Amino acid sequence: MIRINCVFCESTNLKNIYTQSNAPIAFYGVDIPGDYIFQDNIWLSCSSCGIIQLQNLINPDILYNVSHNNTYNTPTWNLYHLLFEEFIKNNCKYNSVLEIGGGNGYLASKLYNTSLEYSVLDLFEPTNKIEGIEYKVENCEIFNYNNYTSIILSHVFEHLYKPLDFIKKVSSSQVKELFISVPNLKSTLDSNSISFIHNEHTFYFEESDIVNIFNKYKYKLQNKFYFNMHSIFFYFVFDETFIDIETNALINNRSEQFIQYFINRENKLSTIKTQNPTFIIPSGHFGSVIYSYLKDKRNIIGFLDNDTSKQGKYLYGTDILTYPMNNISNYKNIDIILHAGPYTNEIYTQLITYNTNINLITF
User: Fold this and answer.
1) What global pTM score does this model have?
2) Contact, 342 vs 247, CB < 8 A?
3) In this predicted model, what pLDDT tens digit does every residue of 211-223 receive, in sequence order?
4) Torsion sign, CA atoms 38, 41, 323, 104
5) Is the Cβ–Cβ distance between 293 and 269 less than 8 Å?
6) Could you give the CA distance from residue 137 to residue 139 in angstroms, rounded to a whole number?
7) Cα–Cα distance between 140 and 146 in angstroms, integer?
8) Going edge to edge, which strands form the sheet with 335-338?
9) Which of 219, 251, 314, 360 is positioned for an S-S bond with 214, CB 3.0–4.6 A?
10) 235 within 8 A of 224, measured Cβ to Cβ
11) pLDDT in tens, 265-277
12) Backbone angles phi, psi at 214, to 5 degrees
């Protein structure tokens, strides 16, 4: 699948700004290494609106066919869900709710009650269904929303390949209200996080981009909330009389900023040197980026991760296993390459409870 139109303005004025060569197409764990697919990740900049986006898109049936993000029960994600739940309850005006991408059931278990008509829409059939909730398996970009008044997307919007198609569908159905939580990509870029746009998050946006694109289809921002530097919560209400003020000004510095970001990331990771047996933390997309750019892999003996769905499996694209965090307990001389964006400090605090005699490599 090749992206030929800008995700936000539909322009074809896309230019290549950076290519990550021979990158693995997925981040999940596999039982047996081998038969991997690699491709060049070609990053584009839209000359019309400035949005950065990935050209080559992976078939969602391949990308998401293995559950590989069971970290929703960590301290950060527990607090996130509590605050997003409160945000929804404090603003929701209707009782026909559709949660998109809620197959793990975590948010639904907090929000659902017998007075709600609660449905979950996901690409795949959930394994842990909640009694009383209706489940639908379909792509949200082509789904019919005529029977719903309220829609929730919790860290889902950034996974869409054609977000405009989704917004057009909900607008044409006149869905009354939207609750959308997205990662704060601006803060992650500013903090030089090494992995926040990739095969699953295929376009970069900031708060103003989100507001502008929903305004265009008569969704007016009613409320928002910042969860630290981690996420932004938006509450949009459909207003048929709303007149959007066109704001398609080109963001001139975004292309140059990302070119430098990608170059700096490559230079930083490719020059890492280790002296001792080495673990990379975490597995998944962070570990995949680190491993892909490392020039010297001789000392790498494994990945560490709290996610039980990754433990005991080989990270896609590698012949390296993922272990539980406490696997480091008995090492006397060990190097740890740690980078997990907003979760880095949380992981380090856990790490030193198992072993304080480590050489930490972080950035």
Assistant:
1) 0.91
2) no
3) 999 999 999 999 9
4) negative
5) yes
6) 7
7) 13
8) 322-323, 300-304, 278-281, 335-338, 359-362
9) 219
10) yes
11) 999 999 999 999 9
12) -80, -35
